[in-house]
Structures are given as structure tokens and as C-alpha cells.
Predict the 3D structure of the following.
Amino acid sequence: MKHIFKVFGCVLMAGGLLATSCTDKFLEEVKRDAPSTDWLSTPDGQASIANSLYMNFNYFFSNESSYCYTNYGTDEFMVAGDASNGMWNDYDARLGSVVQPRVNSNTQAITTFWNELYKYIAQANTVIHYAEPGTKSVALGTAYFVRGFNYLFLTMQFGDIPLVTEPPTSPEREFTRNSQKDVYEQIISDLEQAYSMLPADASLAKKNLVSKYAAAHYLAKAHLWRASEINSAWNGSYKDADLAAVIKYADEVIAAHPLAKDYNDLFANFTAYDTSITETNTEIVLASGSSDSDSNNRKAHWGLALFTAWYQSFPLMKRDLAGAREYQRMKTTPSYAYFLYDLKNDSRFWKSFKTTYAVNAAGEKGKENITIDGKTMKATDYFPSNDGEYLSSMYIINRKDYGQKYYKDEVNVAKAPTSSSYTREDYHTGKLIPNIMALYIYDKDGNVVGTSMTPDYNTLLAPLSKYLDGAVPANNRGDGFRDGVLARSAEDYFFKAEALIRQNKIDEGLAALQPLRDRAEFKAGEQRDAYVDGGNAYHYNTYKSGLKGFTANCAFYPWNSYYYSLGGWDDEAVRKATNAKASELPLVTSASYPKEDQAIMDKLGYSSEFDKALCFLLNEKSREMYGEYLRWMDLARTKTLEKRLVFNDQAYSKTLTDIIGNTKDVTGTAYAESSNGGNFNPAKHYYRPIPQDFLDNIYKDGKPLTADEKQALQNPGY
């Protein structure tokens, strides 16, 4: 290889591992005359190429595939209204070395991450290879970090993988898979190199730059993953040292990156790019975004639309900036999410999920009039504003233990609400609420007869709200521009706690999570029904005045359904007294787990001290980090994925069953059978299939692989 840009201009085939030659025309376009490899050994050359590696981090948020690999097929999410990638959730035969059949252009291939991450590995290899011997620089540390980071993600997904540490100098086709033992040694070596070279400056995270603490975070993760159940066939000699390393590195990150004061500061208190506390708080260890002070490198964040629920056809509603475009890929799993939290005392549920929407289309075509108690009136007379001031639609999380009954004749019972109920009053405005959905629906005799949150492919759900973005500069966007959080120090508390639990220091490990639970409590004087999400940035959006039809249309409503779900909605004295005092989550010990956790342990059949402690930790991690693109890897490495699919009814069984145990909805209509459910195979699905195009393009001894040789390189079962 003679020219650096010739390397980066190469077409990367078979997952970024096979390089082909490039044309001189490309060299002319980059406006650098024959840059020699000597330039790569200079500080400027190293810094320039290392800077381009930051685009790697954007990739995890700038497309649809991320949720397929990380959120689908777990206890946290199932398929919502769009089943383009349902095979990733259901583990059926369509999920193979080639994902077939493609439902539509949104269906994600198995090659997506493989190709992209190996591309950046090749780029990092180039920086590392051409560094002067003995060099220790930020640029070189960045390259080591990116290589270790990508190999960690790849081995978590695919197991044994090709380990390539030299840049491509000519077309190459001879590759094999290295053992996970070798891969983890390379990952840890790379991250240790990064740790030794990157600055110990926690403030770099605010600029979306890697630091020593980002390397420490992923070192803790790599050591913990190596010590986990999925590697039990070979990791015995590493465990003690690994667990000690986890605690060491986690403690460093925790000390350098203090927790955000309010859980809302992590995602919800977003008003503008780069300045909101959500993008500048100290808890962030690594985020995607621009790689320097200018934002030209910023990439899209598809989380904006992927977690949303349908709302635009609801009574007096339409799609707007604050509510976001509804791509409806992920549905909150009803039997897990709504029963996981102490809803009275744990603010994280109410600060992670959206339970209310505001009137934003009163008076518009087809929505000019409303009828209440048989009287028809102009919608604008009853709701004189479309700017987020009046409650339109609400999800009630009325678990039985809170005693709030909503009856069949006062809630919506259709899967596509078009009519209004107007049965309960919004205590903030005195107006009747047009549309209510309830977790439990009762008949007149007080018996539970159904739920609004059914397990079939409908779109009624309280959606995750962490990634909403009302600051976007155009209508109908599927992607926003918020930073994507890759690592925050809260996860290091889980790393440390789990390492202690694995060292049989169970109560010490459980106590390590207490700072997170302390933060989760409502503070004295905090209004428990106050709500904010990133859609609220609409009110600060400098673009909105030029967006036709969107001025003064805001689906964001600043109050949630806390009191409607738990009681007190009709008693101001109760609400005032509750808001005045701090909430209190119970202290967790090995002898005393919260009732929500005990119910999950009982359902999963856990009885040993270790299993119960790990179960609590995984539950608590959901409460803290729900939907943060981590779940599949946690459940796969701990070999708990199979059991926890009982909460994901679509994946668990062909016969869909709701939270009540019914196979029919409240109207008596049977849930559509899932032809793809119940296919999870623990001998197969704890790893992804090796991409077919990689197997088809590599050689052995100068010849394409035979069918048997391809199968020998494939993961079992595929």
C-alpha cells in the first residue's frame, strides 16, 4: 500500500475484511497529491485519521439495525406496529445467515454490524500500524480504543470471529475465526493500551471524545463479559482476576463521572443540541455526536421514531414535532415493564415512559366538533389551544396492587381509537379527558375483563420517551440529532455490583446499587405527576415558525398519569401531601427483595442466593437503563435470555396471552396467532449467524470454501 487515501477509499467486501484496489480518480478528488505512508507516522496524520474514527460511534444510532441486535427478542421489548424486523424478536427461521424474506426495505440484514465494525477496525489498524515505535498519543489511544470497542461488540454478538490486527495492503480472502479466548485477550490488550494513552479528563465526554475513563468503562465490561456464563466452558482460570479488574475499573469511572442529580437530566431535560444538561451532564462517559466543536460530523439518531406509539389518529390529535413520527418498531412489554417498578416510589418509570399526550388538532378538518354527554359543541370552544395545554390521551398503569379501577364503559376498547369517552376529569384543567387506555379494564361487577396493552401487533402502549427530539428542523423526521449515549457511569455501578455478587459478596454487591436507587426516589417537594421529555424542546425550537401546520401544535403534555394510576387524581389534599414528602424505596438485602422482584423470581423459578441476586440486578438494570441498547447482550452473556422471554409473549409462544392470561381482547376477539413464536433455541440463539456473504467471499488455500467448510465456520444451528 502506497497511499493512505487509497486504503480508506477501498471497497470493503465480506464484512470489511477483503480489500480491493481503488481508482486514481478517487485520489484526485481528495485534494492531496500522493500522500505517502510517511504522513501516517506524523502527529498530524495520526490525528487526522484517528478523528475520522469517531464516526464509528454514530453508527450505533444512525440506522435501524441497532435495536434489532440489542432491544428485540428480550424481556424489555416486543414488536410494535411495524414488523419489518420481527424475525429478530421471534428467533424464527427467517433469522439466518441471510435474513429472508425481506419484509420491506427496512428489514435489516445480518451483515449490517459485521460489515460496518470491521471497516472501522481496518481503519484503526492503519493508524496503529503506521505509528512510530514507542509512540504514545491520543490519536493512537483512540485507534486502540475503537478496535477493542468493536471487537467487544462483535464477539458479544457472534462469538468466535476473525481477528485482524494489520491493515489491508492488497486484496485478501484467507480468513478464519479466532476463539473467544483469543478475542478477549486482544480486546483487553487494546483497551489497556487506550487506557495508558488517553487523557484522564472526564470533561472530554462533553465533547463526545474518548478519555481514559471510557477505556476503563469498557475494560470493566470486557472483564465482566469474559467472566460470564456464556464463556463458562473456558473462562475458569480468568474469573478471579477478571472480577477484581471489574471492580478496579468501575470504581475509577464512578469517581470520575458523578451521577446526574436528577434522573430527568439523563434524557428528559432536553431543550437544544449540545447545551441541554442531557448532553452535558457528568454521568456521560461516552456519547456519539460531533467529534469536535463543530457539528458537521453529527449523525442522525433514529431512536426518535423507533420507540414511539401511534397517536396521530387519536381524538383531537395529529402527528407533530413534539410527539414525533411514529415508526412503531418497539413495543414496551406489558407483563414486564408495567410490573417491574415500584410505581409509587420509583420515579424512573415516570421519567422513562410517556403516559400522556396533549390535544393538538382541535378544530381541524374532521375534528371540528366533539360530543360530551350527548351535547355537541365546537372542539375549539372546549379546548381553545392546541399548544400542549389540554390532555387528550392517557395510559393508566393501574396495577391491581394500587386499587384503581377503570371500567369498560369509560376507557377505549378499540385497538385504533377514533371515538372519545370523556368520562374522567383532568384535575389540572377541569376538562374531561377524550381518550383513556388502561392496563386493567373492569366490568361493572368489579371483575378484570381485559387490557388496553394487548400482546398482538397493535400500537397501544406507554412508549419509552428517552430519545424524543422536539428540536428537529423539519416535519415528519424519522431521525433526530441528539447525542446517542453509549456509556454512562450508572452502568459501572452494575459492573461493580455484579462482580461482588460473583465473588459471593452478595449483600455488598446489592448495596453497591443503592446510589442509583437513592436517586430514583422522588424528592420532598417534587411533583410526582410532573412530566418532561425531549419533545418539550418544541417550545424552544427556532425552526418551528417556518414549518407549515406545526406552529402551536404540540402533543407534549407536562403531566403524567401518576395519580390516575395510583390514586389521588380526585383528591387534591392527597396529591399535595404526597408531593410534599420524599418517596422511599425499600432497602435491598439477600434476605429481603422488593415485592416486584420477588414476583419475577417466583415466575422464573429462582431460589438460590446467586440466582436471586443476579435476577434482582438484571431487573434493576432494566429500571435504570431500559431501552439503552444493552439488554440482549446482558441476557445472552448471563444465559438468562431463554427464561426471560416469558415476558415477551410474541417470542415465547405462538399463542399470544395478555397480562390477565386471556387469549382474547376485551371485546372477545381472539389475538392473532403468532406463526413465529416459541422458536428460541438455547443451543443456537445465544449467538448470531455468521453472515453468508462473508462465508461466500473468503478462500481456503486459494480456493472458495466448499459447502462443508462454510458450515464448519458457521455458528451451531444456522
Q: What stands out?
A: DSSP finds 28 helices and 16 strands in the chain. Residues 200-299+494-503 form one domain.
